[in-house]
Amino acid sequence: MKRVIAIVDDDESARVGLVNLMSSLGYEAVPYSSAEEFMQSTERGRTACLITDVNMPGMTGLQLHQRLIKSGERIPTIFVTAYPDETVRKNAAQAGVDCYLTKPLRENELLECVRSALKRSA
Description:
- The chain is of the alpha/beta class.
- It has helices at residues 12-24, 35-39, 61-70, 86-94, 107-121; strands spanning 4-8, 29-32, 47-53, 77-81, 99-102.
């Protein structure tokens, strides 16, 4: 069973762009419009890497990451945000988030984070 990269972002254009980028590189990417939708997904067990927006309505990216850890799921996670915040970045690092990237994303930086996360989850 092929492992997937989950893309969680409430911004449809950002979500579609990330899915298209990951797909063009040969990865299977599955989009989710909210953290809650991802948590209800049956695909969670196949998720090798999670790319999530930090600021979303309802559950935030940090809350999603913390909930996964609490449930025993240690999915390598990459945060993306249009609103960088040093406190959030520090909290993310302390929580074990693999990368914290700011939008607009630099493709090479994102790919380096994804490759690193996939190696860690192998």
